[in-house]
């Protein structure tokens, strides 16, 4: 996602020459943004995903083409210059990292998924890798979502499968091949009662929605 919002701020990924950056604005800010407004710049390549921490409105994570994930502390006041120092840099992917998602209930647990077909869970407090799910996806991961209490993950992949993964057991507990017949990317999320909602396309490229048990 190119935009992320919480009760205090909106963050938007922006293009900047030679590196990756995003801008953070207070929700109360309206009107034009000054072209010299400070940015959050620490990545050496474009930022691909941003996600606010659900437990602290001043903490945001960013994933980048430079293979790293960074976690940032955003002050309540507007800083005078760019924020360049992350609280922690998470290194473990070998290719660009396109997906990040905070655990919905456990503090300091962050998930990242990269173009190396790898899903990593991090302890942000210590900067260490909690676990790596490395042999579950045979191709590019399109999206990853937690269920409501964070006990399960749902993923979609270029291999046309939707998987439900128990990260504690490091096992795929359910799998659906070709929930939509089309070749375009599929996305999936958990809904409140534990069912899975998917979006995709038919063979004729018509949009489809699916609800799965």
Record keyword descriptors for this entry.
mainly beta, 213 residues, 4-stranded antiparallel β-sheet, Methylamine Dehydrogenase, Chain H, Thrombin, subunit H
Overall pLDDT:
94
Uncertain residue ranges: none
Fraction in beta strands = over 45%
CATH topology of the largest domain: Methylamine Dehydrogenase, Chain H
CATH hierarchy: architecture of the largest domain: 7 Propeller
Number of strands: 19
Report helical residue fraction. under 10%
The spatial strand order of the largest sheet comes to 1-2-3-4
CATH homologous group name of the largest domain: YVTN repeat-like/Quinoprotein amine dehydrogenase
The helix/strand class is mainly beta
Overall 3D shape: globular
WD repeats: 40-74, 90-132, 134-175
Pfam families: DUF1899, WD40
Domain DUF1899: 2-32
InterPro entries: Coronin, DUF1899, WD40/YVTN_repeat-like_dom_sf, WD40_repeat_CS, WD40_repeat_dom_sf, WD40_rpt
Written account of the structure:
The chain has strands at 3-5, 9-16, 19-26, 40-43, 47-52, 59-64, 68-73, 88-91, 97-102, 109-114, 119-123, 128-133, 141-146, 153-157, 161-166, 171-177, 187-190, 196-201, 207-212. It is mostly beta strands. The radius of gyration is 18 Å and the shape is globular. The chain has a four-stranded antiparallel sheet with strand order 1-2-3-4, with no helix packed on it. A four-stranded antiparallel sheet has the order 5-6-7-8, with no helix packed on it. Strands 9-10-11-12 form a four-stranded antiparallel sheet, with no helix packed on it. The chain has two domains: 1-134, Methylamine Dehydrogenase, Chain H, CATH 2.130.10.10; 137-212, Thrombin, subunit H (Beta Barrel), CATH 2.40.10. This is Coronin. It comes from Malurus elegans (Red-winged fairywren).
């Amino acid at each position: 996602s190119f935009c992320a919002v919480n009760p205090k701020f909106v963050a938007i990924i922006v293009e900047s020459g030679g590196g990756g950056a995003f801008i953070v604005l207070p929700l109360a800010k309206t009107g034009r943004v000054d072209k010299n407004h400070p940015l959050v710049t620490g990545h050496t390549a474009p930022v691909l995903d941003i996600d606010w921490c659900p437990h602290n409105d001043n903490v945001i994570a960013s994933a980048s083409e430079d293979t790293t994930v960074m976690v940032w502390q955003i002050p309540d006041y507007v800083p005078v210059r760019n924020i360049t120092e992350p609280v922690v840099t998470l290194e473990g992917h070998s290719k660009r990292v396109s997906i990040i998602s905070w655990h919905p209930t456990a503090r300091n647990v962050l998930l990242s998924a990269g173009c190396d077909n790898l899903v990593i869970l991090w302890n942000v407090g210590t900067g260490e890798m909690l676990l790596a799910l490395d042999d579950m996806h045979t191709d590019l991961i399109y999206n990853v979502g937690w269920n409501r209490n964070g006990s399960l993950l749902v993923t979609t992949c270029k291999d046309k499968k939707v998987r439900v993964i128990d990260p504690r057991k490091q096992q795929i507990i359910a799998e659906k091949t070709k929930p939509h017949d089309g070749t375009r990317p599929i996305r999936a999320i958990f809904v409140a009662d534990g069912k899975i909602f998917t979006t995709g396309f038919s063979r004729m490229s018509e949009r489809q929605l699916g609800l799965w048990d």
